Amino acid sequence: VKKAAAKKASIKKTALKQSAKKTPAIASSKKKVNPAALVEGLEGARKEPMPHELTPMLATLVDAPFNDQEWLYEVKWDGYRALAFINGGDLRLVSRNRNEMTGDFPELADLPAHVRAKTAILDGEICALDEHGRPSFSLMQQRTGFEPGKTKQRQKNGSAVIVFYAFDLLYLDGYSLMRVDLEKRKELLEKMLATDELVRYSEHFVGKGLPLFEAAREQGLEGIVAKRRRSCYMQKRTREWLKIKITLRQECVIGGYTEPKGSREHFGSLVLGLYDDQGRLVPVGQAGSGFTHKSHAEMWKRLKGLQTDTSAFASKPGSLRGMHYVRPELVAEIKFVEWTHAAENGPRGALSGLKMRAPVFQGLRFDKSPKECKFEVKKSTKIESRKAEQGEAA
After folding, report:
1. Which residues pair with 124 in a beta bridge?
2. Which of 87, 96, 216, 309 is close enough to 221 for a disulfide, judged by CB 3.0 to 4.6 Å?
3. Pair 368, 148: CB distance under 8 Å
4. DSSP assignment, residue 104?
5. Is the predicted pLDDT of residue 14 greater than 70, yes or no?
6. Confidence label for 270 from pLDDT (cuts 50, 70 and 90)
7. pLDDT per residue over 34-56, tens digit each?
8. In what order do the strands lie in the sheet with 71-75?
9. What is the C-alpha separation between 177 and 24, in angstroms, rounded?
10. What is the average per-residue pLDDT within 206-220?
11. In the chain, how long is the greatest CA-to-CA distance?
């Protein structure tokens, strides 16, 4: 029992700190390492020109954590997914829907100096950390004037500590690593990366999904990701990677707003929707909490600019008073308690009657398009992991 408790405590500590060791100086990141010697002969590595674009590999949502020696487990970081393209001293940060984010995070300009190679592509997550070192999506939203793509607003804000968690290596000095086993890619990433408080290596735990899940729950983290140790990197959603959430979060399309009540200004609640499998925007609830005075006023400016007389919803969003419609162009991150009924029992994509209980606005997402906002049905962990191990990747 003591040994198990000590192991859990070790996982809990590592899960949050994630290699917070400082390098004595950035120059130390360029200590002698020969990438070619490490890659040549590595099964699956192929000599290819460096690609200009890639689509991130996405995980399938499943219903429960599990232990399995065929899998490794990582913390699910709560931020912006980003591919880092490094070419000499140049850096490009690209979002999951291929939007440029390089200028939006000036704090990460020195990221190339942390990689012991001339060219590389890293997969990772850009996070804003709170005072306890935990990733906070809402804190990311509080960065002064932050909105990806707005050049005049690109400025550093000392109130939010920005870090890059690197969890995969896809390309290195002339070699594509996408057909190399994940565990080998991560071993190589750890050797090539000089970590400090700005750039961190996202550690993993082989076979220890349950203790990591409990450690993440105790720390108030979003969840964990299970990844098959021998998985190749595929540019699509796959069951080779499985995500298990602790906190219920959903990206929703803003399709309208309600009139304010009492002393509240501007608007009352955001009217939210998700797309079903037929491409119809279906209402799933309203979020009126989670705003600061400043964010409420900023949201109002955006809503006014998108007002329209035409509803984008396929059905009327309940008997809401003072309802106003907007063009469905904004994506909101919403935290909530539960869905009001078990949608998993219905047909795929069916959202009729589905509502979020106690939804709270967390911020706007500029890295996801409205059409990506669909209800994710939790699949069986047992079935999905078994299919992945049997070679059914997608």
Report:
1. 82, 166
2. 216
3. no
4. G
5. no
6. very high
7. 887 888 889 999 999 999 999 99
8. 58-61, 237-245, 223-228, 71-75, 205-206
9. 29
10. 95
11. 70
Cβ count near 203 (within 10 Å): 20
Q: CA-to-CA distance for 127 and 110, rounded, in angstroms? A: 16
- The set of catalytic residues is 76
| Residues, the chain | 394
pLDDT at 153: 38
On the CB side of 27, CA atoms within 13 Å amount to 0
Residue 10: the pLDDT is 57
62-82 pLDDT, tens digit per residue, is 999 999 999 999 999 999 999
C-beta atoms surrounding 279 within 10 Å: 10
Percent of the chain with pLDDT over 90: 62
Residue 253 above 80 pLDDT? yes
CB 375 within 8 A of CB 350: no
Secondary structure (DSSP) of 132-195: TS-B-HHHHHTSTT--TT-GGG----TTSEEEEEEEEEEEETTEE-TTS-HHHHHHHHHHHB--
Query: What is the pTM for the complete model shown?
Result: 0.84
Q: What are phi and psi for residue 68, nearest 5 degrees?
A: -165, 130
Per the listing, tokens 């997969």 go with: 123
Contact of 202 with 75, CB cutoff 8 Å: yes
